[in-house]
Amino acid sequence: QVQLVESGGGLVQAGGSLRLSCAASGRTFSPYRMGWFRQAPGKEREFVGRITWSGGDTLYVDSVKGRFTISRDNAKNTVYLQMNSLKPEDTAVYYCAAKVNSRSGYDYWGQGTQVTVSS
Predict the structure, then answer these.
(1) Which of 1, 5, 47, 51 is the most buried (most CB within 10 A)?
(2) Of 50, 95, 96, 56, which is closest to residue 74 (Cα–Cα)?
(3) In the prediction, which pLDDT does 55 show?
(4) Are residues 97 and 110 in contact, defined by beta-carbon separation less than 8 angstroms?
(5) Phi, psi angle pair for 97, to nearest 5°
(6) d(Cα 71, Cα 82) in Å, to the nearest integer?
(7) Closest by alpha carbon to 56, among 32, 40, 75, 36?
(8) Nearby residues of 105 by Cβ (< 8 Å), 6 or more positions away
(9) What are the tens digits of pLDDT across the range 53-111?
(10) Phi, psi of 9 (to 5 degrees)
(11) How many CB atoms lie within 10 A of CB 98?
């Protein structure tokens, strides 16, 4: 079993930055891909971006391109979401998730961390 724990959320003013972390623990951790998602109040959960665990290839939703960066530290079993130039519309609970292989959906999810951006 894999456990994912997010941290780093908080309250920040518009234009500010936050870095979220997602630490994995449990059995030997070597996922195919790690993703970040978010869910704002009253809205469906949306994809933010993802990174492949081996090659580090990234992909982002258009609304965060150029502002958010996903990275990983394989030795620490940790993935990061660096968020710059934050906007009030980025306010949401942010979740990380792990995809075990290319054929599966996201198999493991963290509990989420709240990010609030004030205007």
Answers:
(1) 51
(2) 56
(3) 87
(4) yes
(5) -150, 155
(6) 8
(7) 32
(8) 99
(9) 998 899 999 999 999 999 999 999 999 999 999 999 999 999 999 998 888 899 999 99
(10) -70, 170
(11) 23
Asked if residue 4 lies in contact with residue 101, where contact means CB atoms within 8 angstroms, the answer is: no
Look at the block and give the residue holding tokens 């869910």: 39
For the record, the structure tokens of 58 come out as 């990234």
In the block, residue with structure tokens 């710059």: 84
How far, in Å, CA of 56 to CA of 113, rounded? Answer: 23
DSSP letters spanning 37-98? EEE-TTS--EEEEEEETTT--EEE-GGGTTTEEEEEEGGGTEEEEEE-S--GGG-EEEEEEE
Tokens (6 digits) for 98: 């792990």
The total number of residues written for the chain in this structure? 119
